[in-house]
Amino acid sequence: MKFIIIIFLMAASATTFSQEKKPRARDIGIPFDGAPGKYNAITDVAGVEVGQTTLIEGTVGYDPDPVEPPADGDALICCSKPRADLVLDL
To answer: Which of these, 14, 40, 65, 83, could form a disulfide with 36 (CB 3.0-4.6 Å)?
Structure first.
Protein backbone atom coordinates (compact mmCIF):
# COMPACT_ATOMS: atom_id res chain seq x y z
CA MET A 1 0.00 0.00 0.00
CA LYS A 2 2.84 2.41 0.85
CA PHE A 3 4.36 1.76 -2.58
CA ILE A 4 1.11 2.76 -4.34
CA ILE A 5 0.87 5.97 -2.31
CA ILE A 6 4.48 6.87 -3.10
CA ILE A 7 3.89 6.30 -6.83
CA PHE A 8 0.73 8.43 -6.68
CA LEU A 9 2.55 11.28 -4.92
CA MET A 10 5.42 11.15 -7.42
CA ALA A 11 3.00 11.33 -10.34
CA ALA A 12 1.04 14.18 -8.76
CA SER A 13 4.20 16.22 -8.12
CA ALA A 14 5.46 15.63 -11.70
CA THR A 15 2.15 16.92 -13.04
CA THR A 16 2.38 20.01 -10.83
CA PHE A 17 5.91 20.83 -11.98
CA SER A 18 5.08 20.37 -15.65
CA GLN A 19 2.21 22.86 -15.38
CA GLU A 20 4.44 25.71 -14.19
CA LYS A 21 4.66 28.38 -16.88
CA LYS A 22 7.97 29.78 -18.00
CA PRO A 23 8.13 33.56 -18.28
CA ARG A 24 7.62 34.95 -21.78
CA ALA A 25 10.30 37.21 -23.25
CA ARG A 26 8.07 40.31 -23.31
CA ASP A 27 7.02 39.68 -19.71
CA ILE A 28 10.63 39.88 -18.50
CA GLY A 29 11.44 43.02 -20.47
CA ILE A 30 13.05 41.71 -23.66
CA PRO A 31 12.04 44.25 -26.33
CA PHE A 32 10.60 43.30 -29.73
CA ASP A 33 9.47 45.49 -32.60
CA GLY A 34 5.71 45.59 -33.14
CA ALA A 35 2.96 44.05 -31.08
CA PRO A 36 1.80 40.45 -30.71
CA GLY A 37 -0.89 39.30 -33.13
CA LYS A 38 -4.36 38.06 -32.24
CA TYR A 39 -3.11 34.60 -31.19
CA ASN A 40 0.48 35.58 -30.26
CA ALA A 41 1.71 32.80 -32.54
CA ILE A 42 3.59 32.21 -35.79
CA THR A 43 0.22 31.73 -37.47
CA ASP A 44 -0.45 35.46 -36.95
CA VAL A 45 2.15 36.28 -39.61
CA ALA A 46 0.51 36.80 -43.00
CA GLY A 47 1.59 34.25 -45.59
CA VAL A 48 3.17 31.88 -43.09
CA GLU A 49 1.77 28.38 -43.08
CA VAL A 50 3.00 25.94 -40.50
CA GLY A 51 2.60 22.28 -39.93
CA GLN A 52 2.67 20.88 -43.43
CA THR A 53 4.86 20.98 -46.49
CA THR A 54 4.86 19.70 -50.04
CA LEU A 55 6.54 16.37 -50.78
CA ILE A 56 8.68 16.66 -53.90
CA GLU A 57 9.98 13.08 -53.66
CA GLY A 58 9.28 10.21 -51.30
CA THR A 59 6.42 9.10 -49.12
CA VAL A 60 5.56 9.37 -45.45
CA GLY A 61 3.36 7.41 -43.10
CA TYR A 62 1.52 8.24 -39.89
CA ASP A 63 1.03 6.19 -36.76
CA PRO A 64 -1.51 7.00 -35.52
CA ASP A 65 -3.32 8.56 -38.46
CA PRO A 66 -3.77 12.34 -38.13
CA VAL A 67 -7.20 13.71 -37.28
CA GLU A 68 -7.03 15.96 -40.37
CA PRO A 69 -4.98 14.28 -43.09
CA PRO A 70 -2.95 16.61 -45.32
CA ALA A 71 -3.76 17.13 -48.98
CA ASP A 72 -2.34 14.62 -51.44
CA GLY A 73 1.32 15.36 -52.01
CA ASP A 74 1.74 17.12 -48.65
CA ALA A 75 3.13 15.90 -45.32
CA LEU A 76 2.52 16.97 -41.74
CA ILE A 77 5.94 17.97 -40.45
CA CYS A 78 5.10 17.36 -36.81
CA CYS A 79 4.14 13.72 -36.96
CA SER A 80 5.02 12.11 -40.31
CA LYS A 81 7.50 9.26 -40.57
CA PRO A 82 9.52 8.98 -43.77
CA ARG A 83 9.27 5.64 -45.55
CA ALA A 84 12.42 6.42 -47.57
CA ASP A 85 14.59 9.42 -48.41
CA LEU A 86 12.53 12.60 -48.85
CA VAL A 87 12.78 15.84 -50.76
CA LEU A 88 10.58 18.51 -49.20
CA ASP A 89 9.59 22.00 -50.34
CA LEU A 90 10.41 24.00 -47.24
So the answer is: 40
Q: What is the DSSP string of 2-58?
A: HHHHHHHHHHHHHHHHHTPPPPPTGGGT---SS---SSSSGGGSTT---SEEEEEE-
Backbone angle region of 52, left / alpha / beta, with phi > 0 → left and psi within -120 to 50 → alpha: beta
